[in-house]
Each structure stands twice: as structure tokens, then as C-alpha cells.
Amino acid sequence: MTIDDIIRWVPTKNAEMMTTTGQSKRDVYEFFHKPEFADKIGVEFGCYQCHSTIVLAQCFKHVYALDNWADAIAVGRKFLDSHGIDNVTIFHQELYNGFPVADYRV
Questions:
Q1: CB of 30 closer than 8 Å to CB of 2
Q2: What HEC string does 7-68 produce?
Q3: Domain count of the chain?
Q4: 102 lies in a domain?
Q5: CB 67, CB 15: distance < 8 Å
Q6: Which residues of the chain have a pLDDT value below 50?
Q7: Backbone angles phi, psi at 13, to 5 degrees
Q8: Are 80 and 63 in contact (CB under 8 A)?
Q9: CA distances from 16 to 22, 67, 71, 76, 93 (A)
Q10: DSSP single-letter state for residue 84
Q11: Element housing 80 (H / E)
């Protein structure tokens, strides 16, 4: 899956105010889509409906995504599943009240 494919079918700022721009998604992809990150773990704080998470999932071995809005997380999980993305774990978590990950060495 290329970044052009992703930008074609993932909502961007023009269609969904709460997500990031297509350029932001492209910048993240171009920075992290390198061999030195392929075996690493990525973390996304505030994943909303996983529109950027899907970009990170192309770059990292696994992504932990956190958000405090349960409805958005449910939409995001369906979105990832519908595109065959299985290397993302989403946590329903208020970001200012600690983190659910037991091993902080991610």
C-alpha cells in the first residue's frame, strides 16, 4: 500500500475536520517509512478514527493508538479492519490520567 493509495481513500481535512491533512499524512509516511523503523513500535496519542493510524501501520511493526472518545475508537477499529490492518492496538484512554501500557520501553 503506497501513501498515494492511502490518501486517495482515507479522509483528509477537506472531508473530516477532526483529522489531519493529506500533506501531514504524506509527511509522516515519508519520514517513518524507512527500514530503520520497520521493526519498531509506534505510538499515536489521539488517534480519533484512525485516519493517520493507518499511515503509521504501514511504517511500524506495531502501533499502539490511544484516544479518549469511545465512539471514535469504534469507528477507527472498523476502518482499520475494513482495510486489513491488523498491527494496531487501540486503547480507550484519557491521555492525562496515565497510560495502560505496562512496559514503557516502547
A1: no
A2: HHHCCCCCCCCCCCCHHHHHHHHHHHCCHHHCCCEEEEECCCCCCCHHHHHHHCCEEEEEEC
A3: 1
A4: no
A5: no
A6: 106
A7: -55, -30
A8: no
A9: 11, 17, 15, 13, 22
A10: T
A11: helix 70-82
Please say whether the beta carbons of 43 and 74 come within 8 A: no
Is residue 47 in a domain?
Answer: yes
Radius of gyration (Cα) for the chain, nearest Å?
13
Q: Which of the 8 DSSP states describes residue 97?
A: S
| pLDDT tens digits, one per residue of 31-46 | 999 999 999 999 999 9
Read off φ and ψ for residue 45, nearest 5 degrees.
-100, 115
Joined together, the cell numbers standing for residue 70 give: 469511545
Q: What are the backbone angles phi and psi of residue 4, rounded to the nearest 5°?
A: -65, -40
- Ramachandran category for residue 98: left, alpha or beta (phi over 0 → left; psi -120 to 50 → alpha): left
CATH number for position 86: 3.40.50.150
Q: Which residue has the cell 505510538?
A: 43
Non-local (6+) Cβ contacts of 73 within 8 A are 47, 67, 90, 92
